[in-house]
Amino acid sequence: AQSVTQPDIHITVSEGASLELRCNYSYGATPYLFWYVQSPGQGLQLLLKYFSGDTLVQGIKGFEAEFKRSQSSFNLRKPSVHWSDAAEYFCAVGPFQGGKLIFGQGTELSVKP
Amino acid sequence: GAGVSQSPSNKVTEKGKDVELRCDPISGHTALYWYRQSLGQGLEFLIYFQGNSAPDKSGLPSDRFSAERTGGSVSTLTIQRTQQEDSAVYLCASSLGSRGSVNTEAFFGQGTRLTVV
Questions:
Q1: Mean pLDDT of B76-96
Q2: How far apart are CA B35 and CA B88, in angstroms?
Q3: Interface contact A45-B108, CB threshold 8 A
Q4: Which residue on chain B is closest to A42 by alpha carbon?
Q5: Spatial distance between the Cα atoms of A94 and B26, rounded to a whole number of angstroms
Q6: Facing B48 at nearest CB: one of A9, A42, A98
Q7: Ranked by mean pLDDT, which of B36-45, B46-55, B63-72 comes out on top?
Q8: Contact check, Cβ <8 Å, B42/A100
Q9: How far apart are the C-alpha atoms of B75 and B26, rounded to whole Å?
Q10: Cβ contact A87:A79 at 8 Å
Q11: Greatest pairwise CA separation for chain A in angstroms
Q12: Is B42 in Cβ contact with A106 (below 8 Å)?
């Protein structure tokens, strides 16, 4: 069955430090992978997506993610975190059955000054 | 409108009552999705509409849940005889994509926070 695992429920980093959020998926073929961010009280915003080709994907707000087929991973990275990056981050795989995405449980990011 | 609009933003209801949640998608978007976000549970797919095709209802958790989309635009998610476990944030999203398309981004509304007391 298809699934997405985000092993870290909550991560705290200092402002200016680097960030890596982990995402592992289970899927029988090459997946389409997504990272979304949700700020408090807001909907989800797409950060980046991977369909095929270059395994290092650049997104908005300085984020990037790397698809590693051998590890079934699609980790999100940012070299220097800003306080405004504090939010919840969701990894997703899909689409299935006409468009739905399967989401991980999310990782809440806190940023220390 | 400029984005996906959901109303109400918050809803408190008594157990056993029916509730209706509304979603106004981005104008011109043919695909519309409902997801449920429960505390610590991530996002759970509920239902998908694409144009005039029959909706994909595979994610609806019980027959108390139903949704319709009128005129290919506004959608209403109805929960009958609400239970405490229905408490969650209900998110709506829309996209330009045709069925199965991955090349169009889904835009999410801010959600409706439902609390069943």
A1: 95
A2: 10
A3: yes
A4: B110
A5: 22
A6: A98
A7: B63-72
A8: no
A9: 12
A10: no
A11: 44
A12: yes
- Inspect the interface and report whether the beta carbons of A100 and B40 lie closer than 8 Å: no
Structure tokens belonging to residue A42 = 């807001």
Q: Does residue B55 contact residue B77 with C-beta atoms inside 8 Å? A: no
pLDDT of residue A52: 83
| Higher local confidence (pLDDT), A36 or B51 | A36
Confidence grade of residue B103 (pLDDT, cut at 50, 70, 90): low
Report the pLDDT value the prediction gives residue B98, as an integer from 0 to 100: 57
Nearest to B50 among A98, A101, A104 (CB): A98
Please work out, in degrees rounded to the nearest 5, the angle formed at the alpha carbon of residue B47 by the alpha carbons of B9 and B115. Answer: 35
Pairing of strands B112-116, B88-95: antiparallel
Both tokens of A3, joined, read 């699934």
**Buried b / exposed e along A54-88 (16+ C-beta atoms within 10 A):** eeebebeeebbbbbeeeeebbbbebeebeeebbbb
> Which whole number is the average pLDDT over A78-103?
87
Statement: residue A100 has pLDDT above 80 = no
Distance from CA of A24 to the nearest CA of B (A): 15
Integer Cα distance of B65 and B41 in angstroms: 19
How far apart are the C-alpha atoms of B117 and B106, rounded to whole Å?
A: 32
Chain A closest-CA separation from residue B99 CA (Å): 5
Residue A1's pLDDT is what? 75
